[in-house]
Design brief:
11 helices, 299 residues, alpha/beta, single chain, globular, 8-stranded parallel barrel
Length: 299
């Protein structure tokens, strides 16, 4: 019996080390400017096959070989961080109201809905649960979560996942520095910039001057003359480019549905690659992984 226990523990340890090696490789690749691998970022997890922002949606992403998942945060009445995109739980669960209306114990009694709006058996996860599930296996992007920057950092430290998590916001550098300067340089922070909006270049310049982010998330509803110029400026600076293929207003019409439903993958994902993207956030992670592997841009 003792031999069996030792064998089980050895196997578990070996698996953990292997998983951690994957996370370490992803972080190294994220920082490698010469890497030709393109990161597939799954928007709210694999929400077409599991409820968005659910642990099952993240498990699916790990199993399919996605590189990063995107999550959103809210706080309960008793200050627990949970995964939730909307201001209320109405759309995504069988409950009603704001997350802040409930304690963690109360909100855990509700169940998530799937993409068809059907109630499932999946509870609303906490940030801690998501971090522990993904630890060593896949990177995490916290999108809607800037308001809890310090609390998030504390949880990253607690779970040992600081190096696996990207925190983002669309705020200028000085605001982020003033509000979260104590932890800004301790995490992987990524600015979101609308390239076709006035003031985009100043936002980029300020970040490049002070922290030189590993990447910029670049959004644009149309390809103005400024868009390719700023994309080149970011690439030349040594930061990587993140482009969303989620819906048309984020990428000037080069979106996932066009790629998959109309079969125009080269016109969409191929075009995004031509803009210099090293990270693509998608609602079609399986199809994008297949495409990138065919093009030799993903292991």
């Amino acid at each position: 019996m003792l031999r069996f226990i030792y064998s089980f523990l050895f196997t578990l340890l070996a698996f953990t080390l292997t998983a951690q090696e994957r996370a370490d490789a992803l972080v190294k690749d994220l920082r490698d400017l010469d890497s030709q691998n393109v990161f597939v970022v799954a928007h709210r997890g694999d929400w077409r096959n599991a409820p968005e922002n659910s642990l099952q949606a993240f498990k699916n992403c790990i199993e399919m070989g996605a590189d990063m998942i995107e999550i959103d945060l809210k706080k309960t009445k008793d200050n627990h961080l949970i995964l939730m995109h909307d201001e209320t739980i109405d759309r995504t669960t069988d409950g009603k109201g704001k997350p802040s209306d409930y304690t963690l114990e109360e909100i855990r009694k509700f169940h998530l809905k799937n993409g068809m709006g059907r109630t499932t058996f999946h509870p609303i996860p906490t940030l801690e649960e998501a971090l522990l599930l993904c630890k060593g296996k896949i990177l995490i992007n916290i999108d809607k979560g800037y308001d809890y920057f310090q609390d998030v950092y504390d949880m990253l430290v607690k779970t040992g996942t600081v190096d696996q998590v990207v925190i983002k916001s669309g705020y200028p550098y000085q605001k982020v520095k003033d509000e979260n300067g104590e932890v800004l340089n301790k995490v992987i922070y990524m600015p979101i910039v609308s390239l076709d909006q006035e003031g985009a270049e100043k936002i980029i310049d300020d970040y490049l001057t002070h922290i030189k982010p590993v990447a910029f998330e670049c959004c644009f509803s149309q390809v103005t003359p400024e868009v390719p110029r700023l994309l080149k400026k970011i690439a030349d600076s040594g930061s990587k480019i993140w482009i969303n293929s989620l819906w048309a207003s984020l990428n000037a019409g080069h979106d996932d549905d066009r790629a998959v439903d109309l079969g125009e993958k080269d016109e969409v994902w191929g075009w995004i690659l031509e803009q210099g993207a090293s990270l693509i956030q998608t609602d079609r992670p399986v199809e994008l992984l297949e495409y990138l592997k065919e093009k030799g841009r993903h292991d």
